[in-house]
Amino acid sequence: MPTARTRVVREAHRGVYDRETVYRILDEGLVCHVGFIAEGQPFVIPTSYGRKDASLYIHGSAASRMLRQMKDGAPVCVTVTLLDGLVLARSVFNHSMNYRSVVILGRATLVDDPEEKLTALRVLSEHILPGRWADARQPNERELKQTSVLRVPIEEFSAKVRTGPPIDDEEDYSFPTWAGVLPLEMRAGAPINDSKLDPGREAPLYAKRYTRPRRFSELA
Ligand SMILES: Cc1cc2nc3c(=O)[nH]c(=O)nc-3n(C[C@H](O)[C@H](O)[C@H](O)COP(=O)(O)OP(=O)(O)OC[C@H]3O[C@@H](n4cnc5c(N)ncnc54)[C@H](O)[C@@H]3O)c2cc1C
Predict the structure, then answer these.
(1) Confidence check: pLDDT of 62 > 90
(2) The whole model's pTM is what?
(3) Which residues of 151-183 are buried (b: 16+ CB within 10 A; e: fewer)?
(4) Could you tell which of 6, 9, 96 is best to mutate to test the pocket of ligand 1, judged by most ligand atoms within 8 Å of the CB?
């Protein structure tokens, strides 16, 4: 159930509060935006993340403002947005977007248990590019020390989902213009070899076949 803070107000029927939907959106997203206030100034910082069960993990330089603020237990708002299409209505007013988004409110805690820290970093890596963690050199002591990992509990959250065609005012359906949905999706291009790559080394399949899953089939 939503809390007083996470209840979607406008277009309330688009609010979704079940974990399953929220997890699917989080698992498909690549970037979250972390909002926090430091010295009276709001910041909203884009960053990568990973999810394990009801924990969202964020990592970064131990020196970054975002990580420093968050580890001190400051309230945060984490948002993930998937853009699925542009919705072209007959009237300018009724144009919209099809999207799936999640908002999580809470406080972060520093992950200092070395085992959980390494697991969180693997979760983050596998979230972005499954298969890469095992194929790359593992982090050493120095690198681990320079990296902070934070856990945001997925406890107070909401999702909002818009799907489907434009919704015009009845009298506008006869207006002579095109209306419909322009679907948008994230697609990977062909891998580009690093110039220092050993000759003859091919891009792995997990790079060649990279896709983000699209689990909602009824997006148009
Ligand atoms: C790609 C995209 C484009 C959008 N374009 C517009 C636009 O042009 N104009 C506009 O007014 N709105 C737009 N929205 C919707 C916007 O995100 C808010 O939902 C909207 O401003 C209504 O907020 P509210 O006043 O009802 O709720 P608020 O009072 O702002 O929020 C109350 C609670 O509802 C939940 N909530 C609100 N919005 C979302 C959301 N999107 N996803 C998950 N939880 C949410 C949060 O938990 C929040 O704490 C867009 C959303 C997306 C994803």
Answers:
(1) no
(2) 0.93
(3) bbebeebbbbbbbeebebeeeeeeeeeebebee
(4) 9
